[in-house]
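Re: beginner question about structure tokens

> Can someone show what the tokenized structure looks like for a real chain? I only ever see the sequence side.

Sure, here's an example I had lying around. Input first:
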Amino acid sequence: QYELSEITSIEISVFNILGQKLVTLDGGQKTPGNYSINWDATQFASGLFFVSLKTQESILTQKVLLLK
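And the corresponding structure tokens:
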């Protein structure tokens, strides 16, 4: 889940521990509001991943541990 306070372009991507982009979950021009997305990780093995939210002003990254 994420919240935007102004109109902005975003990109939400998942990276592996080597920094390689695996998938883009969402992107494009968004209006202010609350958003929710789901990552269908069925094709990925268990492990550590990074989810990054990039806007025009900043980049926020969180670690995600996928356990199957």
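Each token stands for a local structural state, so reading them left to right follows the chain. DSSP finds no helices and six strands in the chain.
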